[in-house]
Amino acid sequence: MALLELDGLAVCYGKVEALKGISLHVDEGEIVTLLGANGAGKSTTLRAISGLMKPSAGTIRFGAKPITGLSAEAIVGLGVAHVPEGRRIFPGLTVRENIALGSCNRKMSSADRAAAVGRMFESFGELEPFANVLGWTLSGGQQQMVAIARGLMARPKLLLLDEPSLGLAPMIVQQVYRLIADIRRQGTTVLLIEQNAHMALSVADRGYVLETGELVVEGAPKALWGNDEIRAAYLGGRRTMSSTSSSGGVH
């Protein structure tokens, strides 16, 4: 069953058409990845879904209900959480306070909010020793975990992740992607955008490739990586997916 559907979605920056009528779907329980170079329209797609940008054409449906043009606050309330590129940790707040901000859309008591943050520390055990440390002092990988935990505080049905591996060391990237696989196992659907095609396809059920605002190909990870032309043009060259296909990898 489709949890998210985009139909003919177009977005413009002034006179520049950043998305040119794309259509895609994300089924409940899936990890789906959007791949493509800088400027392909990946981040614009997530911003349109989460209400940060208004489409110029097309429709967005979430849980079969149209959400096109709704405010970002309303869309979060429906169960869509967006973890943007760059982590955006608030420098004057502790790790605990940064995570708690993710529950601003939920009406809950201080005690319930504290308990919810506590559950995040149980899931993200590496962060617990830093609960009362200023968030900006953490490593890049730890900050990425704070950003994801903050997104999960909204108890989303759909988590939108924008470039979660950006700027991270390879070992930390593996750790973040194991976390993404765990999030899906716990029942949250994930739409993930990445330039790191190798890692994204290692956890994804399906992938879409964007080029200058248009979808050029869709398929299962093995099919995308097995197509020499697609791999060379969009996925970073030589075939290296044999040991990290969607049947294995960091699931």
Give the biggest beta sheet.
Answer: 6 strands, mixed
Trace the largest sheet across and list its strands: 6-7-8-3-9-10
End-to-end separation: 22 Å
Large-scale geometry: globular
> Unreliable segments (pLDDT under 50, ≥5 consecutive)?
238-249
Q: Using the coordinates shown, work out and report the CATH topology.
A: Rossmann fold
Q: Report the mean per-residue pLDDT as an integer.
A: 88
Compressed to H and E, one letter per element, the order equals EEEHEEHEHHHEHEHEEHH
How many domains, in number, for the residues? 1
What is the CATH architecture assignment? 3-Layer(aba) Sandwich
- Can you give the helix content as a percent range? 25-40%
- How would you name the CATH homologous superfamily? P-loop containing nucleotide triphosphate hydrolases
Tally of DSSP β-strands: 10
- In the CATH scheme, the class would be Alpha Beta
- Rg from alpha-carbon coordinates: 18 Å
Figure out the total of helices. Answer: 9
